[in-house]
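User: Run a structure prediction on this.
Assistant: Running it now.
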Amino acid sequence: MKLMIFIGITIFGTVGGWLGALMDHGNWLGGWSILLGAVGSFFGIWAGYKAGQYSGM
């Protein structure tokens, strides 16, 4: 379960930060990047938890 949550946080947090950087013209420390990275990480926690439940880990 921990592994699935960690993978979810890593993937969705990175994608969220990347999308925020695109919206902020390449600024990785901009407001959009930080906000969407945090939202993606929280979604990654949920998705990883559900994936762990589904796989029986």
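Helices lie at 2-23, 31-55.
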